[in-house]
Specification:
With 456 residues, this protein is an alpha+beta fold. The chain has three domains: 128 residues, no CATH class; 167 residues; 152 residues, Heat Shock Protein 90, CATH 3.30.565.10. It is built from eleven helices and 15 strands. Helix 1 crosses helix 3, helix 4 runs parallel beside helix 6 and helix 10 packs antiparallel against helix 11. The radius of gyration is 47 Å and the shape is rod-shaped.
């Protein structure tokens, strides 16, 4: 047992080995002077160096632990006396001699429980090698906490919650890594409790604000969606009523034209030609109104195609007969290559509308005295119908958009009338039958529009 310092000579080689754990019973620091006596580490320094250390002796040193228990090699005294161990392990080394203590007397350290002798070894090594940990000053720690709060606020406010939570975890993990890296490389410790508490506190304070703001945004979106839905219903109702009202005068015009032509067979040719022009314009207007009514119905409720036995070739012949006057007017030659096909299931009215739209587009955009080819064939359990014209073609950049509602290409001749609904409706009706619409075109060499339908 070491006598109290006052009973020893001032120059005696001794130092106290008292240990002073923190309030949480973990040992992190050790005083250099205690009750006018010098610590073991300070006395060892003066003895080995020959001079007093250039540090403030009134301040405790923060221990830089080399590692967990067992990091320092230990030898049994009996083995040393019997020369049964390698003495090279202790040559030119500071050796601490003491008795083996009971595990119940071990000291709690940041690396777990450790014997008092090994704790003294870490203290002596820390002081001799000047590896004591530097605790950053309060202003620096406050600045770090402030920057942490600013970073957490930015993450929470400018990212979705799921992403923000992940980023906050990464942010906290980065702070932990930086703290331990600064401890290992620079022997500086800036603490983790304050930054981590700042992240947690900022999250708890702002999460309610963020959720409230998102709920308000969602409420506004719902209100806007409800308003737009009401406006859309109003628009559809208006278009539907307006279109229905237009059908009556169109029907009257058609009836008057038919009556004039049937009751006056000897009309002047120019008058007959004028009446034919009026009839064509009336038919186009009726078709446009019919398309608008279809689209209005499509947008308000889904269309269920009928399931009837369909002969595609007969539908093609019906479409050709319906549009024959257009081919005659522009002197366009129509070539129909119709292969024998098996009957299939589908909606004849919708499929007739598709074929009619494709043929009508081909006639509209083909020059006079050109040729339009319509072909049917069966391949790989599918029926394929294609219409090829010799028109100006469609630029490649416009191909993905020509099936959009009301879209007309920029290169289309403005004198060619159209609503931009034909291909839109055709694509929709084909897809109702689980089919696919295809377009291939080359500017200056014509366009081919085809659709395939599965044979069930």
């Amino acid at each position: 047992m070491v006598p109290p310092p006052p009973r020893l000579a001032p120059d005696a080689h001794f130092g106290f080995n008292n240990l002073f754990p923190d309030n949480d019973n973990v040992l992190r620091q050790s005083p250099l002077i205690y009750s006018s006596g010098k610590s073991l580490a300070l006395k060892a320094y003066e003895f080995l160096k020959g001079f007093a250390p250039p540090v403030d002796l009134t301040q405790p040193i923060h221990i830089f632990f080399r590692g967990p228990a067992g990091t320092f090699p230990s030898l049994d005294a009996w083995d040393v006396f019997e020369n049964t161990t390698d003495l090279a392990l202790i040559r030119d080394q500071v050796v601490l001699i003491g008795r083996e203590g009971s595990p119940s007397h071990d000291v709690e350290t940041p690396f777990g429980k450790m014997s008092r002798l090994e704790v003294q070894g870490n203290i002596v090594r820390t002081f001799l090698e000047s590896k004591q940990i530097q605790i950053l000053s309060s202003p620096i720690q406050l600045l770090a906490s402030f920057l942490t709060v600013v970073g957490a606020i930015g993450i929470i406010l400018y990212f979705p919650l799921s992403v923000a939570w992940l980023l906050l975890m990464l942010f906290a993990s980065s702070l932990v890594m930086l703290s331990y890296m600064s401890l290992i490389w620079f022997k500086a410790w800036w603490g983790l409790a304050n930054p981590l508490f700042c992240i947690l506190g900022t999250h708890l304070l702002l999460i309610g604000f963020k959720i409230g703001r998102q709920e308000e945004k969602q409420w506004r979106i719902q209100e806007e969606s409800r308003y737009l839905k009401e406006m859309d219903e109003f628009k559809n109702n208006f278009v539907s009523l307006f279109s229905h009202d237009l059908k009556t005068p169109i029907a009257k015009i058609k009836a008057i034209l038919d009556r004039l032509q049937s009751e006056n067979p000897s009309l002047d040719p120019s008058v007959k030609q004028g009446l034919s022009g009026v009839e064509r314009a009336n038919n186009e207007l009726a078709r446009l109104i019919s398309d608008i009514l279809r689209i209005t119905k499509m947008e308000t409720m889904p269309i269920e195609p009928a399931k009837e036995v369909v002969d595609i070739n007969r539908l093609v012949e019906s479409a050709i007969q319906r549009l024959s006057f257009l081919f005659e007017e522009k002197e366009i030659k129509l070539v129909a290559n119709l292969e024998p096909l098996f009957a299939m299931e589908g909606d004849p009215q919708l499929l007739l509308e598709v074929i009619t739209n494709l043929l009508e587009n081909a006639v509209k955009y083909s020059p006079s005295k050109s040729q339009v080819v319509i072909q049917t064939q069966e391949t790989d359990h599918q029926v394929r119908v294609s219409v090829r014209d010799e028109g100006p073609g469609i630029p490649e950049e416009e191909l993905p958009r020509v099936t959009s509602k009301f879209y007309r290409g920029k290169s289309v001749d403005k004198s060619t009338r159209g609503s931009g609904l034909g291909l839109y409706l055709a694509k929709y009706f084909v897809e109702l039958h689980r089919g696919t619409l295809h377009l291939t075109s080359e500017p200056g060499r014509g366009t081919e529009v085809s659709f395939t339908l599965p044979i069930r």
